[in-house]
Every structure is written in C-alpha cells, then in structure tokens.
Amino acid sequence: MSARKLVKIVHRALRLAFVGLVIAHTLLDPGYPWWWNFLPIALSYGLLIVLHRWGGARDSPRASREPVEVEPPFTGRWSALNSPADRTPSHGTHAYAQTFAIDVVAEPAEGARPGFRWLWPIARRNDAFPAFGAPLLAVADATVVRAVDDQRDHLSRTSLLALMYLMIVEASVRDLSGVKRVVGNHVVLDLGAGTFALYAHLRNGSLTVREGDRVTAGQRLARCGNSGNSTEPHLHFQLMDTADPDTARGIPFTWRGLGVPRNGETFAAPATRTQAA
Question: N or C: less crowded end of the chain, CB within 10 Å?
C-alpha cells in the first residue's frame, strides 16, 4: 500500500471517529468536555496539512505536461460542464485526480435535456435525460484495469432541495465511504506510458468489458448512467497517472478533432468509429 493511500484511509477513519464521538456524546453524555469530540477531525486535517507540505502527498499534479490526445468517448451532440478549458482544477479540487476532469451531458437537440428547477419537480427519472443509456467508447487501444457496475442509478438532483441534499448529506457520506461510492460504476483503462482513463457514473449493469480485457479505440465499454456522486445522467471523464483515483494525480487531455470544449459549449463528435455490439 502506498503512503498516499494510507493517508487517505487514516483521514477517513479519523473523520468517522469524529462522527461516532459526536453521536456517543449526544446520546450517552460520557462526562468529558464536548470539544474533545473534535480531536479526531483536527488530527485528520492536521495530518493532511503536514504530509501535503512536507511528505509529498499532494493531490495536485507533480509538474505541468502536454495534454494527451485521445479519441472522444462518445458520438453525437453533447454539452460540456465543469471543463478544464475554463479553470483548473475543473471541479474545484485536485482530489480523486479531478484536476483536468470534464463532465459532459447529451444534448441531441435544443431543450431535449431537462433543466434545473428551483422547487418542482424535486427529482426526475433518469430516462428523462438523453444521456442516460448513451454508449461510451474506448478513447484508445488499451487494457481494462478496473470495471465496476454493481451500484444503482439514483434519481436526478436537479432541483434546489435535491441539490442541497446531495451537497450537504450524500456527498459527505460517499466521500467517507471511499472512492468507489464517489465515482459510482466506472471503468479505468490503461492507455500505456503511465496514463489511465477513468469513465465515472456509468449505468448499472451496462459494462461490456471485464478487467484484463484488451479494447480498441471506438469499442463500446458501457452506457452512461447516474450512479455515485452525480446530479444527473452524465459522463465524468479524466486522465490520471495511476489506476486508483484515490491516489492518482490528474493528467491534461485533448479529444482528437474536438480539443477541450468550454463550459456550456455544445459540440458534436462524429459517428465514424466502429462501435462494438
């Protein structure tokens, strides 16, 4: 186990200890000062600060490097969200190797994708979104090193109330539960030369590949879903320097023929590659 992985595990364990102490203090009144409950959480973040500063455990990339050019992982008309073309880290954090990650949603036509609503409906079914079930393709000839699709697809979080629940409650629980619950169903491809591609939030039961399989560029891997820490059916795509998002650092990418779309940009990936059945 790497030092970075150990740090992540200890950090989560101390945060869980904090939650347990708060609950125990509330229910049992053990007799010690209430502020003692915060010792584990203080230790957890103190550990991160010390190791990030002096121990080489930073989540940010080690050094700048040229983007790796790969094929787009889909065909058709899509829109970009949380794009590294607008800022890095694109998702506001380097954690889970998200520095250069991008989210994309299917937009086959104007108005085809339901928009955000302040109050109602609180949530929508996944089949209301054109991205749900869209085929996802290998971006290069590669080897499958991770393949998970046993998690459920939850409803959308595209209203204010649902989004608050996701950000305040669900996201924290998923983060404490580990990277698998954050990325949901996912595939990781080894592209060679120390570069790995992560496809996150895949549809439950949609994988067409297994760990150890060799795939070719354009081959279908799975379908777009809404599992893990996700607001609506979409693809979260990123390149990273190891197969484990918990300890990896992000690598910049560019899609052949498309570049890196900016936030809100609608673009079309041509259907010229052969898709596996």
Answer: C
